[in-house]
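User: My notes are a mess, but here's the protein and zinc ion's SMILES. Can you give me a structure?
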Amino acid sequence: MIVRAACLIVMLSTGNLWAQDDTARPVARPDVPTDATTQAVEPAAAVIAEPAEDTVRPRARGSAEAILPSSEIRPIPRPFDRPDLAHGAQTQALFRAERDLFAFSPNAIATSPRPAVRPASIEAAAEERRLARLRGQICGDPSIQGKTLGRVDGSGACGIDDAVRVRAVAGVTLSPQATIDCRTASALKTWVERGVLPAVGGEGGGVSSLRVVSHYSCRTRNNQAGARLSEHSFGRAIDIAGIRLRDGTEMTLLTDWNSEDDGAQLRQMWRAACGPFGTVLGPESNRFHRDHFHFDTARYRSGSYCR
Ligand SMILES: [Zn+2]
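Assistant: No problem, the inputs look usable. Here's the predicted complex:
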């Protein structure tokens, strides 16, 4: 047993000696002393003072003046060089902090990643946009109120790239709110201002709301099987069945188009839609529109289509 153990120890130590040839340990760099004897003869300082050409060790950086020719060094404007841009106690405190920091480290990086302080005019414009959103302004028009929806996806080709949900135009409420695009919302506002409000005047206390019976809807024209997709499928159309007044009464397309009372006013509104909208269909266009106006912003080569 003792003989066997001794043989094993010899085999193991021999194996260890051979293993040294295959080791993954990196080879010592030629310019660095490898053992104590060499270190004692050649002081380390000498090696550092004259590194080999191919050394990968980085060199110490000097000041910018030592590295670059003086023509390359230009002062870069910093926020604290422009105290006229500082407004507000917090910004002024930041200016002071940066100035003090720079005074202590002249070799600090020349440009700070911190963005320059924005001028007051930009902040004022941003605040105006924020207040406009609070008021519900959409489509860049203070007289169009609602909410921006962005992309509305529908099946197949249906959908709206930049949809809005319109709550009111020119102070007249949409009931219910309509999902359309801004071009259609803008045409609707123009129609209310030029057609609806003048036609109604002060009757019944004035216009209160529009009764909307269709807006965005993925469907064919007149809901007919096999027909082309309606402009409603792209948020470019809106259908209106009545004009509600502040006293609670309503001018209704179905009952009042031919009435002595409100017929002339409804026809005046129909005419006023031709222009702001590319297609205008009323009770006399076909049997599908006996009870509502169809307005859309599709354009035809021959101009607006109004029936
Ligand atoms: Zn329609």
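Residues 44 and 178 are 82 Å apart (CA to CA).
User: Great, I'll file this with my notes.
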